[in-house]
User: Fold this.
Amino acid sequence: MIEPATLERLAGLLGVAAAELQVQPLPGGISNRGCLLSRGSDRWAVRVPLASGAGDVFDTSQAFDTGVTPGTGLTLRIEDELRVLEVAGAAGLAPEVLAHDADSGALVTRYLTGAEPLTAEQARSDVNIERIATVLRRLHGLPAPVGVGAFQPTEPARVYTRSAHSAPDSEIDGVNELRRWSTEFRQLAETHEAEFSRAVLCHNDLVAANILDDGRLWLVDFEYAVRADPILDLAGLAGLNGFGPTHCNRLLDAYYGPGCAPIDLAQLNQVIRLVRLMAFFWALVHGGNRATDDQARFAASMAAVLR
Assistant:
């Protein structure tokens, strides 16, 4: 779960002995694994990246110039994510960062006692739609730190659809379906760039497991943060958590105010489709066809909702 050398370094950063630490897994995570470190009454949450291939972590100051964005398997550098977490933490939207290990990319935050990740079903409830909308309005009002690039999905659409044609196709119904989705992904990406601004700080990975609840809501895992239009996070929340039309309308009203949304349901649905296609192609390219692979299972779930 945590390499011994990494645990030793983290223990040193926390001012404790590694031998005194208890380690237990925390649920969730496709590109990362979470665990709880404890010593007596002290608790720390740790996020450890899975082994990544070359280029999976990138310099956004260069990568965004070419249009490659997080949300496609390419994450913020840890230094850039730390700046996002500092801003979000100061606003009370994310747990406080206590330490990070530059060698492994492990990140240590304050453990939120009693906090549980939402389920997709919980995220769809009327009460939680209101609560999440409030959190997102606050997030979108924060300044985007240096290193957070603009959301430009056209290049990821090109790169990942091209790569997908050489990936195992166990999650797709033949070549024609893959070609159709590839074309649709590229077209929706072009439309999004033409129609929407890239002005606010967005989380860009709003699966329910990244929203913790201890009586208030907290956001975690900002490694895909971008500058984008608020619709990206609204569509991400809806598209990754099974929202239907009623949920989506409620979300628009909760975020913008009843009847005040500058976008309609059709526009939101278009970005939901983009988010789902992006998630599918990322998982297809990175997950392989192993039945035990989390990314492969995620690709299968995205394929099911795309059909």
